[in-house]
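TA notes, week 10

Several of you asked for a full example with nothing omitted. So below is the full record: structure tokens for the whole chain, then the designed sequence directly under it. When grading your own attempts, check the secondary structure regions first.
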């Protein structure tokens, strides 16, 4: 086994993995980085369709310390995002530390607090710790309905280009951003485009008054004030969703991830997209809906989201409730040292402003953990930190929490000492050792 015990291992070289790598370099923390794909970009390289553009704006997506080029539009394309991430990689000298086309199939905790990493080729290496940055847009979640659809049945992640929908009768299941994009694409090139909605959604145009909607509201306003203002603007600009044939939302704005799309309502008014209710069952190429209607389709696209999954970790090592990884401070476990799981949350807009300070905080946590015997996550837990109840994150609240935790770092050393004495007095066992058996791996499992 190759001894890399003085280094950290970063799994994934998408937007979060790159930000983490930059932070480790800045804090002079040795690391190696693994990426299963041939280049950087993560989901932007392998998981999105050809014509996709970001739904958040350029300014709310760029890294806080590396602005996007001024000649980029408000909503950059996939190609522009890949170019930007590539330039970020070169600018900060990250490429030399990335092993491309290298899949991690297993990462196990060791009794000494370190981690054992196994690569797809069978090589095993020993590291001080691991940073899990494999993303959350890869493990497809499919809906379950009675019966079987016998024509083309795909997930939104399998959609790549308009030719897949050309001339076909298309049903899209779901009301999120990918669902609306694909339904709009089908409205342009397909024979018909229907979208099945289990409930009402907040459909928000990408721009208001010439500004990206993500930049319209002052993020420092209280959330209740943002909701009130946005509802007012939507009523004035959009009107009632029922006037477009869609159900009214059954939740408050921001209680679920809002759908940012300007084309869905446009095509609905042109008769190119029609809403359908939830599905009752499949029967061959026929889809039966709960309102009694039945229609035939050539393609069903399931834009039904993704599971939060870590197939290279032992099952249950990172607990997940719903779509929320149960980690403290957005990345830490109470039971294990030297494992960090950033980037599982979904901020209200782009990733950049939050991921940059979070990555810096992670680097500081790694250095702090080197001074501790107990897991830093356990110290946070015993200090009153709470586990997340949702994967949705208010960016201003997240940045406030990051600043607060950074200010608490000196106190964490003292708290760890007190907690260690307390646990020693109870004859508490040390953090769980690496007695976990390796998870069974499906050879076809997609990790990134």
């Amino acid at each position: 086994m190759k001894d890399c015990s003085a280094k950290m291992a970063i799994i994934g070289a998408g937007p979060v993995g790159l930000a983490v790598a930059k932070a480790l370099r800045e804090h002079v923390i040795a690391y190696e980085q693994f990426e299963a794909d041939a280049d950087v970009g993560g989901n932007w390289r392998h998981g999105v369709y050809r014509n996709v553009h970001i739904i958040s704006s350029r300014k709310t997506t760029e890294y806080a310390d590396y602005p996007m080029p001024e000649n980029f539009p408000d909503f950059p394309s996939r190609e522009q995002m890949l170019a930007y991430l590539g330039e970020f990689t070169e600018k900060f000298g990250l490429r030399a530390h990335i092993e491309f086309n290298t899949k991690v199939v297993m990462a196990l905790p060791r009794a000494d607090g370190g981690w054992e990493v196994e690569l797809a080729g069978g090589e095993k290496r020993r590291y001080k710790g691991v940073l899990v940055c494999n993303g959350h847009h890869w493990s497809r979640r499919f809906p379950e309905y009675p019966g079987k659809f016998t024509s083309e049945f795909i997930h939104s992640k399998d959609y790549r280009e308009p030719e897949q929908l050309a001339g076909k009768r298309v049903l899209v299941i779901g009301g999120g951003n990918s669902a609306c994009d694909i339904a709009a694409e089908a409205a342009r090139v397909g024979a018909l485009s229907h979208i099945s909605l289990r409930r009402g959604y907040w459909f928000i145009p990408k721009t208001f008054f010439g500004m990206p909607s993500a930049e319209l509201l002052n993020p420092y306003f209280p959330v209740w004030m943002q909701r009130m203002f946005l509802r007012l603007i939507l009523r004035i600009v959009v009107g009632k969703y029922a006037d477009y044939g869609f159900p009214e939302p059954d939740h408050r704005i921001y209680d679920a991830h809002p759908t940012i799309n300007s084309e869905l309502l446009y095509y609905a008014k042109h008769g190119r997209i029609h809403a359908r209710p939830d599905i009752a069952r499949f029967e061959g190429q026929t889809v039966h809906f709960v309102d009694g209607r039945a229609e035939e389709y050539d393609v069903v696209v399931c834009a039904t989201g993704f599971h939060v999954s870590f197939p290279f970790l032992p099952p249950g090592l990172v607990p997940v409730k719903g779509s929320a990884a149960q980690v403290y401070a957005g990345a830490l476990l109470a039971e294990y040292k030297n494992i960090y799981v950033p980037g599982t949350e979904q901020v209200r807009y782009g990733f950049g402003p939050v991921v940059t300070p979070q990555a810096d905080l992670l680097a500081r946590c790694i250095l702090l953990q080197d001074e501790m015997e107990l897991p830093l996550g356990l110290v946070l837990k015993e200090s009153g930190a709470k586990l997340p109840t949702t994967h949705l994150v208010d960016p201003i609240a997240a940045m406030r929490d990051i600043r607060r935790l950074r200010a608490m770092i000196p106190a964490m050393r003292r708290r760890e000492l007190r907690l260690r004495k307390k646990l020693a007095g109870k004859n508490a066992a040390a953090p769980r050792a690496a007695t976990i058996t390796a998870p069974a791996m499906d050879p076809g499992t997609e990790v990134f």
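The two ends are 24 Å apart (CA to CA). Use that as a sanity check on your answer.
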